[in-house]
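FORM 12-B: Structure-to-Sequence Request
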């Protein structure tokens, strides 16, 4: 599959990065790639690959990053497959994590997984361990991020077990978070959890706290990010109760976020803000508007001048492109990201770019119900040109192969064949499609069905 080929390419480049710390940082991304693939494909062999890759990392800090990513995927797989015994293996890995931040995050993942699998005593112990571990973190940003993760997990545990007292403990823990950005995000999530246990007044208080903290944020991108998250939180709250009086609606919050985009002058952060708004809009069933935001993000991405930022944003844009079934364009975004990463002279930033791209790749694994639409579109484009030469006949054959693979439920292989067919066609005709979303009506309907909780 092209996703695996890209990962191999990233690994090859990563092994050539100078300086051990940078090289192992890049390779931690490969370990996390395998862990995420294991979760996406239900592939336990990929989980072993992830562990083997982590074992090759000889520096503790970088190995801890990889091990934390493996624990995260292992916990999600345990939940998905309803195999609580997998959490014993995850705990064994946690004991090998040496950095306080990564250990806190891993313990939080285990506590949540235990909650969802009914082991409430174990969950209580490990969230308590995480709360203790977080105090050891010296880096302020990491400490606030870890505090936010622990508080949100504790609140989710309270919502899942219908225990408002646990959410109250999470609220008190959240008061230790400094900075408007992290506090706003945390309290918006706590509001959702209170809504799940039908505590409307507490939910309203948390939303108000989240909104009030926006005033303490000076960075335009962070303000847009938080507004998008609060908009999503309000939509989720409305699933459990009627609109909270005195609070802004999701649409009003998104309108505020959209209006602030003009104030973001840095094209890198503007592109990231547009991607964030597009994700929220898609979750709110605003498919056309979401598509428009992605296309605007692409325009901003091309205007980014810093090579590291440009590499990162093109890999990030690949995610919504794939989500909309634009698999060829998603691949091109990743190719552009890798090419830019290779050009970076600073080994640390090169490693960061390689790691970031590797971690994003599993997000591009196709959604099965979208694949037939993509193949159908590819077929229309290829067959329109197929008599213009032997190469195009070969492209037509690959589309036919893709159709057969769909019948066998081999969706990733089908996408691979269709992508190659499109690449051949574009190379022969010289007409290359833009890096953008062009949603057919069939796919719009599919996206709306997913939002409504239907198939997929």
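FORM 12-B RESPONSE
SEQUENCE OUT:
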């Amino acid at each position: 599959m092209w996703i695996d080929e890209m990962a191999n390419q990233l690994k090859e480049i990563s092994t050539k990065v100078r300086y051990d710390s940078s090289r192992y940082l890049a390779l931690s991304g490969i370990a996390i790639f395998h862990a995420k693939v294991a979760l996406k494909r239900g592939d336990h062999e990929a989980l072993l690959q992830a562990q083997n890759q982590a074992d090759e990392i000889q520096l503790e800090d970088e190995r801890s990053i990889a091990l934390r990513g493996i624990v995260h995927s292992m916990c999600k797989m345990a939940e998905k497959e309803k195999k609580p015994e997998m959490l014993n293996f995850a705990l064994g890995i946690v004991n090998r994590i040496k950095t306080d931040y990564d250990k806190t995050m891993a313990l939080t993942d285990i506590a949540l997984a235990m909650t969802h699998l009914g082991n409430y005593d174990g969950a209580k112990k490990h969230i308590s361990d995480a709360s203790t571990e977080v105090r050891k973190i010296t880096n302020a940003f990491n400490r606030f991020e870890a505090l936010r993760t622990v508080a949100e997990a504790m609140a989710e545990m309270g919502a899942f077990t219908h225990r408002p007292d646990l959410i109250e403990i999470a609220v008190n823990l959240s008061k230790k978070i400094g900075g408007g950005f992290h506090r706003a995000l945390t309290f918006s999530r706590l509001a959702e959890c209170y809504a799940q246990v039908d505590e409307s007044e507490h939910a309203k208080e948390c939303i108000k706290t989240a909104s009030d903290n926006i005033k303490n944020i000076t960075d335009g991108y962070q303000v847009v990010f938080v507004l998008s998250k609060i908009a999503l939180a309000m939509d989720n709250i409305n699933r459990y109760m009627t609109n909270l009086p005195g609070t802004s609606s999701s649409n009003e919050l998104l309108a505020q976020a959209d209006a602030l985009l003009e104030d973001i002058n840095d094209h890198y952060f503007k592109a990231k803000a547009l991607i964030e708004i597009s994700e929220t809009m898609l979750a709110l069933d605003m498919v056309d508007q979401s598509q428009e935001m992605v296309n605007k993000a692409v325009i901003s991405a091309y205007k980014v001048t810093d090579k590291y930022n440009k590499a990162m944003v093109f890999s990030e844009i690949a995610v919504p492109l794939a989500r909309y079934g634009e698999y060829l364009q998603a691949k091109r975004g990743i190719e552009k990201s890798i090419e830019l990463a290779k050009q970076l002279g600073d080994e640390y930033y090169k490693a960061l770019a390689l790691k970031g791209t590797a971690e994003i790749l599993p997000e591009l694994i196709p959604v099965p119900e979208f694949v037939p639409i993509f193949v159908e579109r590819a077929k229309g484009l290829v067959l329109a040109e197929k008599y213009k030469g032997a190469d195009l006949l070969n492209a037509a054959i690959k589309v036919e192969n893709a159709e057969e693979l769909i019948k066998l439920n081999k969706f990733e292989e089908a996408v691979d064949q269709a992508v190659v067919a499109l690449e051949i066609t574009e190379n022969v005709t010289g007409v290359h499609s833009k890096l953008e979303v062009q949603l057919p009506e069939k796919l719009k309907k599919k996206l709306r069905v997913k939002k409504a909780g239907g198939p997929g």
